[in-house]
């Protein structure tokens, strides 16, 4: 259980597109790796070795110190029963923690509702990126979704804050027809399936976004750092997260993503570039937090919707299963968690690694032992928990 006196913060970094497990944590000590990867492989001399059998992709040099210092948990064989090889369906499963049926509510949306049940802070959850991740989606839970911190908000072409506020309130009321009024009933209440309440909801959501924008704007003026971030999109997103974190606005959950890791072709170059970008951005982010004494209450989860096929296709790898996830940060108890899947052909499922632990075990560990929330209603069941926090 976490012992920091500060409210614990979770940062989630999604590696979108299906990160190649066995070229990320390379089983260089197993000859079956090189037998299956005739082309798309990491030469043993290039592996960043962490023991006699495994090592990181060479582009992960910037995050290897987390492992060396005991601040990185590697979750081997992460997945779920009956894996789905569609990006969209598999991501939905991870987003909702419901593998067997179609669900809507995001697991992090549920967590944010428990952290802020009255939705008193519109910045309890902040996403850096386009749109709203399904993981954070839940009716009644406001989430600020930020492209760039210095231009966040709605109707930004209106220079006046009062103009934007008035425009959003007008939009909120224009089609409302008194649906949520507490006073006298309107002449005709709209039916729930009619468009009015939807537009009214959008207006109220816009007001939340605008309120969040005005608060987030203060983060820029409060931020100063000697840390130089790389000139990449993921670095910009993580720098934005650091700025908001240091402004102490009460944000407990941050989300961002990077990719695409869908490396069907030209994988050696693309995968190396992606991991260079992720690793250097993550290293800069935590260096920034440490410079400001803000790293002791932050952990980061890196995950991808599935792994890749064991045997390469000559230029890349196809959709697979049996993935790898990472949890890192100063409070993390580093080590290997979960069993690395066997590469023996008889142990594969249609050429794919078998999962060895349910992703909801990792979620449950983070919820129970980091965010201090009851995991069962959020992940829809009870699952074995790890000890990385």
Total strands: 12
Q: Which percent range fits the helix content?
A: 25-40%
Number of helices: 10
The rough form would be described as globular
Q: How would you state the average pLDDT, rounded?
A: 87
The overall number of domains is: 1
Report the top-level CATH class: Alpha Beta
Q: State the separation between the terminal residues, measured CA to CA.
A: 6 Å
pLDDT under 50 segments (min length 5)?
Answer: 154-159, 174-190, 194-203
Major sheet characteristics: 9 strands, mixed
In angstroms, what is the radius of gyration?
22 Å
CATH arch. level architecture = 3-Layer(aba) Sandwich
Helix/sheet category: alpha/beta
CATH topology-level name: Alkaline Phosphatase, subunit A
The helix/strand series, from N terminus to C terminus, equals EEHEEHEHHEEHHHEHEEEEHH
Question: Could you tell me the strand content as a percent range?
Answer: 5-15%
